[in-house]
Amino acid sequence: GEDVEQSLFLSVREGDSSVINCTYTDSSSTYLYWYKQEPGAGLQLLTYIFSNMDMKQDQRLTVLLNKKDKHLSLRIADTQTGDSAIYFCAGSGRTGANNLFFGTGTRLTVIP
Amino acid sequence: DSGVTQTPKHLITATGQRVTLRCSPRSGDLSVYWYQQSLDQGLQFLIQYYNGEERAKGNILERFSAQQFPDLHSELNLSSLELGDSALYFCASSYRDRGTEAFFGQGTRLTVV
């Protein structure tokens, strides 16, 4: 299966930008996703990017995809305390089916 | 609210027992996925059903089984439970079987004692 790696922790000050990085091994993933998990809650789909795109912007969120380096990033502009959560990147399976391979998750802490 | 409903929210049971977790997908979604989230293994894909048929299998133990019923709800059966099966079990659903976003339920927290 695919390996997806993320750094475990990130701390930023409120109002700054956050950049969460992810590297993956399987370049055949059709879609790459970012999910958010708040304490005691399920996974919330934040955004996704099709594998033939380099960038996608959605309000405060910007996703960058570097297929050559197999690197995906999520930038959160004007980070708020409500953004504190665990962020997971995920790729779709080799067959293109929607069974996702998740990274370890990055715990984002926003300091007021 | 994602529209995916999982019951029960919490479950405590003893080793060796069998439990059933239930998932109702979002209205109109045909595909259901089960994932396990544990501290040591992270988030792992277990199994996928599409319109009642098994579509993909991940790291699902032989002691675990699942099915999707004609009304599209799904059940995950876990038997001969071990302490290591304690985890958060998520169900997700999507309209198609590939290439689309999946929406997750709140999860069922299983504690095996």
Number of strands of chain A: 11
Mean pLDDT of chain A: 90
Number of helices of chain B: 0
Return residue spans of chain B where pLDDT drops below 50 for at least 5 consecutive residues: none
What coarse outline of chain A follows from CA principal-axis ratios?
globular
Instruction: Provide a count of the helices of chain A.
Output: 0
Q: In angstroms, what is the radius of gyration of chain A?
A: 13 Å
Provide the residue-averaged pLDDT of chain B.
93
H-E order of chain B: EEEEEEEEEEE
Q: Report how far the terminal alpha carbons of chain A are from each other.
A: 39 Å
- Rg on CA atoms of chain B, Å: 13 Å
What is the helix content of chain A? under 10%
Global structural class of chain A = mainly beta
Q: Which percent range describes the beta-strand content of chain B? A: over 45%
CA distance, first residue to last residue of chain B: 31 Å
Q: How many runs of DSSP E, i.e. beta strands of chain B?
A: 11
The assigned structural class of chain B equals mainly beta
Instruction: Tell me the major beta sheet of chain A.
Output: 6 strands, mixed
Structure, described:
- The complex is a heterodimer of chains A (112) and B (113).
- Chain A is an all-beta fold and 112 residues long.
- In chain A, 0% of the residues lie in helices and 56% in strands.
- Chain A contains no helices and 11 strands.
- In chain A, the strands form 2 sheets. In chain A, strands 2, 4, 5, 9, 10 and 11 form a 6-stranded mixed beta sheet that branches. In chain A, strands 1-3-8-7-6 form a 5-stranded antiparallel beta sheet, with no helix packed on it.
- In chain A, a hairpin with a 2-residue loop joins strand 6 (55-58) and strand 7.
- The N and C termini of chain A lie far apart (39 Å).
- The model of chain A has no long low-confidence stretch (mean pLDDT 90).
- In chain B, the strands form 2 sheets. In chain B, strands 2, 4, 5, 6, 9, 10 and 11 form a 7-stranded mixed beta sheet that branches.
- The model of chain B has no long low-confidence stretch (mean pLDDT 93).
- The radius of gyration of chain B is 13 Å and the shape is globular.
- Helix content of chain B is 0%, strand content 53%.
- With 113 residues, chain B is an all-beta fold.
- Chain B has strands at residues 5-7, 10-13, 19-24, 31-38, 42-50, 53-57, 64-68, 74-78, 87-94, 103-104, 108-112.
- Chain B has no helices and 11 strands.
- The chains are: A mainly beta (112), B mainly beta (113).
- At the A-B interface, strand 4, strand 5, strand 9 and strand 10 of A face strand 4, strand 5, strand 9 and strand 10 of B.
